[in-house]
Amino acid sequence: MKVIVVKDYAAMSREAANVIAACVKENPACRLGLATGSTPEGLYAELVGDYKAGQLDFSQVTTFNLDEYRGLDNDHEQSYHYFMKKNLFDAVNIDPVRTHVPDGANPNAAVVCARYEAAIDAAGGIDLQLLGIGHNGHIGFNEPGTEFPKLTSCVDLAESTIFANSRLFSSADEVPRQAYTMGIGTIMKAKKILVVASGAGKATVVRNAFFGPVTPFVPASVLQLHHDVTLVVDEEAASLLEGSVAGSADL
Ligand code: F6R
């Protein structure tokens, strides 16, 4: 695992954008796995800036998002479809046909999940998967539990996730209770994984996930078993790691 500790959120965003930009430049037809949430907003802004500066071309890129709330229309302002259009897809030259987000508007979970997993396989798998981490250790919407869910599935959100995400809705009651998410097995099949975390509120989970035991009670800890993970964290999120000053280390 490569750990890159940078000063702050802006530096994390640029550093992570560099990793994604390098993947696109190396293979213009690469398949990116994408995440939503507050953490990657800055890195998407950096990628849009690179595109506008003529340094990045998304025309051949294919994307698969990690997850989507079940029961929200694709144009709902809190849907991950909407988030991706606003933060990336509508601002760069990506072909909408090559962008994929689980269809939260379709209540038929078996169909949505099987189709999504098949679409990833048909595209040839994911080259680089971007991940944020929930305060409870979730990746995608794979919540802490007694086992690692394998493939894309319909899951119940943990109370802690409903609480954390209620900041974006008018009340916790409006947060959907279920989501479609890539499974841990889907995520682990990606060739490379890029994890971003920022702020003191993520310090405990960053330490537990990457330096604690591998356990389904901290789903992100499974990433310790992946052979190509880059973790980009700012100093606050890295503050509980030993020797956490800005720099990079291979562990
Ligand atoms: C989003 C996702 C989630 C978030 C996580 C962190 O697509 O899969 O796992 O990455 O909840 O969210 P933020 O960045 O808002 O703290």
Describe the structure.
The chain is of the alpha/beta class and 251 residues long. The chain contains seven helices and eleven strands. Strands 5-3-2-6-9-10-1-11 form an eight-stranded mixed β-sheet, with helices on both faces. Strand 9, helix 7 and strand 10 form a beta-alpha-beta unit. The longest helix is centred in the first third of the chain and has 18 residues. The radius of gyration is 17 Å and the shape is globular. 45% of the residues are buried. The structure holds fructose -6-phosphate. Fructose -6-phosphate binds next to loops.
Cα distance, first to last residue?
5 Å
**What gross morphology would you assign?**
globular
What is the count of β-strands?
11
* Proportion of residues in helical segments: 25-40%
Question: Main beta sheet, described?
Answer: 8 strands, mixed
- Report the portion of residues in β strands: 15-25%
The number of helical runs is 7
Rg, please?
A: 17 Å
Structural class call reads: alpha/beta
Read across the widest sheet, the strand sequence of neighbours is: 5-3-2-6-9-10-1-11
From the structure above, extract its key features.
alpha/beta; 251 residues; globular; binds fructose -6-phosphate; 29% helix; eight-stranded mixed β-sheet; 7 helices; 18% strand; 11 strands
Short structural summary:
The chain is of the alpha/beta class. α1 packs across α2.
